[in-house]
Amino acid sequence: MASLPQHLLPVLLLLALLGPSSAGAPGVIRLPRAGACAAPADPAVYDRPVIGIVTHPGDGAAGRINNGTSTSYIGASYVKFVEAGGARVIPLIYNEPDERLLQKLSLVNGVLFTGGSVKSGPYFETIKKVFQYVLDKNDAGVPFPLFAQCLGFELVSMIVSKDNNILESFHASDQASTLQFPNYSSLQGSVFERFHPDLIRKLSTSCLVMQNHKYGISPKRLRENDALSSFFKILTTSPDENGEVYVSTVEAQKYPITCTQWHPEKAIFEWRKPMIPHSEDAVQVTQHFANYFISSLQLQAYSDATWASDPSDRRSLSA
Ligand SMILES: *[C@@H]1O[C@H](CO)[C@@H](O)[C@H](O)[C@H]1NC(C)=O
Ligand SMILES: *[C@@H]1O[C@H](CO)[C@@H](O)[C@H](O)[C@H]1NC(C)=O
């Protein structure tokens, strides 16, 4: 189930079997009729995906970090990025109690890890827990995507390799870069499948994506690490300011997990750094990533709704 907790599935199936006469009963959860233009019968029914974003320590003012535990933040651009894909966000506060974190995770359809700088302490521990939750949920057959950007990708690399020293230094602070595609066959089924070939070509020749990081991982180190190379496939690489090449986009082989060292959210929603590309092409790249992240969940919600809402829908599916 994409929009409702898993434990409601039997209830929905029961409702579907009982037919429309039960639909108005109090306490009943109704799913919208897929494909209908009409307003939902009950405006309180919410059928769009919800994404959890883990907050980063500090108050977010100019990237200021402190050791205070009373504040944490999510850059607004990450929330807008998810909203641009047609979903909403709830914050997963990095230092809230475990049971509250797990309760929130049970209510969201996917997770985003933001950029930032903190690589240890309670924040890293929470990222580890949420990452394990993502794996477990998918292993249990519930599609539960994760999109990890910049620091998020670095932390996932540390977790998967079980090596906190796996990262290397690169010079890519406030830098617009290209994306190079070392293996076009690996793009099949990936986020880049929805890109027009012209846009792929432009990505590899024009600086359409925003980098802002001091760490990363080289293709060589990723390939030579058994855990990383069996978990991820490399979709793109990028050169830093000195021409040193690092991995800039990966997808997991067996999980709906996408990681970028670069910042898709910035091209449409951030203006503070002068190098951020804002061209029509750069905006399109961002929008493709937002659509890709959220659209897998829309398909899931659509098929669940069609299946469970109305007996006639079930008939047409089984016909
Ligand atoms: C946070 O605490 C650590 C460990 O006590 C210390 O090394 C670090 O400088 C502190 N950071 C800030 C921004 O106060
Ligand atoms: C390119 O990607 C395909 C599909 O993921 C894979 O089978 C193939 O081994 C890759 N080739 C190289 C040279 O890495």
UniProtKB/TrEMBL annotation:
Q: Where is the active site?
A: 150 (nucleophile), 263 (proton donor), 263
Q: Where is the signal peptide?
A: 1-23
Which domain of life, per UniProt?
A: Eukaryota
Task: Give the matching PROSITE patterns.
Answer: GATASE_TYPE_1 (PS51273), PEPTIDASE_C26_GGH (PS51275)
Main location per the UniProt record: secreted
Which reaction equation describes what this protein catalyses?
(6S)-5,6,7,8-tetrahydrofolyl-(gamma-L-Glu)(n) + (n-1) H2O = (6S)-5,6,7,8-tetrahydrofolate + (n-1) L-glutamate
Task: Spell out the InterPro entries in the cross-references.
Answer: Class_I_gatase-like, Pept_C26_g-glut_hydrolase, Peptidase_C26
EC id: 3.4.19.9
List, in alphabetical order, the Gene Ontology terms for molecular function in this entry.
gamma-glutamyl-peptidase activity
What PANTHER family does the record tag this protein with?
Answer: FOLATE GAMMA-GLUTAMYL HYDROLASE, PROTEASE FAMILY C26 GAMMA-GLUTAMYL HYDROLASE
Question: Which protein, by its recorded name, is this?
Answer: folate gamma-glutamyl hydrolase
